[in-house]
Specification:
Layout (H helix, E strand, L loop, with lengths): L1 E4 L7 H14 L3 E4 L12 H14 L2 E3 L8 E4 L12 E5 L6 H14 L4 E7 L9 H15 L2 E8 L8 E8 L8 E2 L8 E7 L4 H15 L7 E7 L5 E9 L5 E7 L6 H17 L6 H6 L1 H4 L4 E7 L4 H14 L2 E8 L2 E8 L4
Helix pairs in contact: 1-2, 1-3, 1-9, 2-3, 5-6
Length: 351
């Protein structure tokens, strides 16, 4: 049984998500200790419990001590597992505002790389703090994973904001027959799009978010190619905004921000645009959040993948070192200029 220390590096939930994904794919059991030990509320959260239980159900994995607040678990994955037809259409309720995007960040690669089709309806939080928004997943992550060979679709039925959540998302994941390397290292000027949404709030809230995002971008000479402001159904009031750019040339930059009580809509729009500008002005091809999310799927792609980033985050380094520890990942990070780095990953396929 492989031992994984959840306190390594940044000591957050990504260590757990990566570890159980790799365990499932390579069919080796793991014990994970000190889970989320560097967080003010350590241990498993409800979205972690739901993710582990879903993988256990899909792949017939034996699990121990999987309860909210647990600091350790045993995850006994094994090889030669088949997903039965009764598991192809599932309904999952994370509860309250547990993050749907973080659950999907784990489930999508493992199901696709395992060469399975899966339809899910998930209830929980779609746009919550300390998590990418559901729009980030369906507009940024979906596009770039399709370049690797992992395809999925997302339909947002209802938004889920803190504290009540109860968002509803339908997801279809397609099995992959071939995985591809990527090389996104040549930055080109790009025009972003903006998606601003709100639920159970006045119409002017998403409008003000988007207007100030545009103003902030245009001050830097960046003109958005399109922008959308929408009021959607939700149980709790809330808002979010995403500034993003995707292109066939290999530019995938995104910056989202969650509305909060007491913070002006103008500030939310400004903050999202400011995040986008930071990567754009550093001539990054992949934003700092995608940089971390790509490590795991690329570790299962035969050959070398490369992408350019503006910042080496603790999340990125932790994920690289974790996968190296578990599965012998070969990687390099080369600094080519101030705030310009090339990440190289040589994967080991299982399909």
């Amino acid at each position: 049984m492989i031992l994984v220390d959840g306190s390594m590096g940044e000591g957050g939930g990504q260590i757990l998500r990566s570890a159980i994904t790799i365990s499932t794919l390579i069919g080796k059991p793991m014990e994970i200790i000190n889970i989320r030990s560097n967080r003010k509320d350590p241990g498993l959260k409800q979205q972690h419990v739901s993710t582990i239980q879903l993988l256990s159900r899909l792949f017939n994995i034996s699990i121990e001590n999987v309860t909210v607040g647990a600091s350790w678990i045993k995850y006994k994955a094994h090889k030669n597992v088949e997903i039965g037809s009764e598991n192809n259409n599932l309904v999952i309720d994370i509860g309250t505002a547990g993050s749907i995007p973080l659950l999907l960040q784990t489930i999508i690669p493992v199901v696709a790389i395992f060469q399975k089709n899966l339809t899910l309806r998930i209830q929980g939080g779609t746009d919550v703090k300390y998590s990418p928004t559901i729009d980030y997943i369906r507009y940024l992550l979906r596009d770039i994973l399709s370049r690797i060979g992992i395809t999925f679709s997302i339909n947002v039925i209802r938004r889920g904001f803190y504290p009540n959540g109860q968002g509803i998302v339908d997801v279809q994941i397609k099995k992959t027959s071939e995985l591809h390397t990527i090389e996104f290292c040549n930055f080109k000027d790009t025009q972003p799009a903006i998606m601003s949404i709100a639920g159970k709030l006045p119409r002017h809230v998403p409008d003000r978010q988007i207007e100030h995002a545009i103003t902030t971008l245009e001050k830097k000479g960046i003109k958005p190619i399109k922008h959308i402001s929408i009021i959607e159904t939700s149980v709790s009031p809330g808002s979010s905004i995403l500034v993003y750019s995707t292109s066939e040339s290999g530019i995938y930059l995104g910056a989202d921000y969650i509305g909060e009580k007491g913070i002006k809509a103008e500030t939310i729009g400004h903050n999202a645009a400011k995040r986008f500008i930071a990567d754009y002005e550093s001539r990054a091809c992949i934003d700092q959040f995608l940089a971390d999310m790509l490590v795991l799927p690329l570790s299962f792609v035969k050959g070398e993948s490369k992408y350019k980033i503006s910042k080496i985050t603790n999340h990125l380094l932790t994920n690289l070192e974790l996968i190296k520890h578990i599965n012998g990942l070969n990687y390099n990070i080369d600094k080519i200029a101030q705030k310009e780095f090339i990440v190289s990953i040589r994967g080991d396929p299982i399909i």
